[in-house]
Description:
The chain has 378 residues and is an all-beta fold. The protein has one domain: 7 Propeller (Methylamine Dehydrogenase, Chain H). Helix content is 0%, strand content 48%. The chain has strands at 2-3, 6-10, 17-22, 28-31, 37-42, 45-50, 53-58, 61-66, 70-77, 81-87, 90-95, 100-105, 120-123, 132-134, 140-145, 150-156, 162-166, 175-181, 184-189, 196-199, 202-205, 218-221, 224-230, 244-249, 254-259, 269-271, 277-280, 285-289, 296-301, 318-321, 326-331, 336-341, 346-352, 372-373. The strands form nine sheets. Strands 25-24-23-22-34 form a five-stranded antiparallel sheet, with no helix packed on it. A four-stranded antiparallel sheet has the order 4-5-6-9, with no helix packed on it. The chain is globular and about 50 Å long.
Amino acid sequence: MTYDGGIMAVDTETGDVLTNTESEGFLRLNEAGDGRHVLVSAGKEFRVFDSGLIVEGHGDHDHYYEQAPALTGSTVEAAEAGHVVAHGGKTALFADGSGAISIMDTSAFEDGRIDADEVESFSTDDPHHGVAVPLTSGDLLMTQGTADSRSTVQVVSPEGELLAETTDCPGVHGEAAAMPTTAGDVVSLGCENGPVVYRDGEFHKIHVDEPYQRSGNQFGSHESPIVLADYKTDPDAEQERPTRVGLIDTHASVMTTVDLGSAYWFRSLARGADGEALVLTYDGELNILDEETGAVLHEVEVVAPWEEPEEWQSPAPTVKVGTDGFAYVTEPSAKKLHVIDVAEGTLLDSFDLPETPVELAVVTGEGRHGHDHADGEG
């Protein structure tokens, strides 16, 4: 977890703070994809943080070890370090200030260092707030745009050949991988006129009724074709507080909505280990939904009622799910971390924290399939 002034690592079985590293500036946390390391977006660079959870294969079983969590000292330079996407055994780092894309094998983090010869470098035409997704085919999905406008998503080959493109994604922001088809990867992206889905080598537009519809924060699952997304419809709102979420069927190219009756924000959404859709609402409840039907399976009272702060960088409740199947929810106003059993819909533990948490990343020693995207831009 980050706080104003540093990073702390917490044992989620005991609540013990394992390490506390002072670091100035606003820090963002991104899972590296290997279940052990976290990439810290810190202005002009990505820093590698080792959780200390070590899993070593031994025949038909694994051995588990632990060491003290710490920053490794390894960094990847990036002008305006932005999004990190781990997918298909690769991890892509995007630099908003230059459009540079750095891609490495996810396994490259094993020694806690990223060397120059482990990095493949790509670039967009112009700097912009974008993202890149390594596909299992070896191709690369990436956004194109400028600091003022972005509406293009492309898939290019390793040699740079343009394989697929859509320009019908104004304000492109937010992406998530879903269950693949027999033809390969499926990736959903948010636009300001309804989402677009890359599937079977082509882009497919999702119909929406509203002239403006933005799903800039999306959450996928390798277990499901459904992507969970926020659902905003007011282009003039400085801070829209939606109560509906979107469920995007990426294989059928349709989206349904569920009205939860209480608002949420971009850090409120997550996916369960079996694909469940999780939404923490202003009333303090963690809503656990069947992603196929939208039915609410559980409503778990977790935190005190809250509201989204005016500045997205400010502390407010955050939800993340580990590969262990548990959901972890921060409650900054009470300096607490809560642990929820998603399958049972029960609150298991609550721990006091020494600092007010801001960002949260969960690593269990096991890597996860797919990726999702939550960002303060909306």
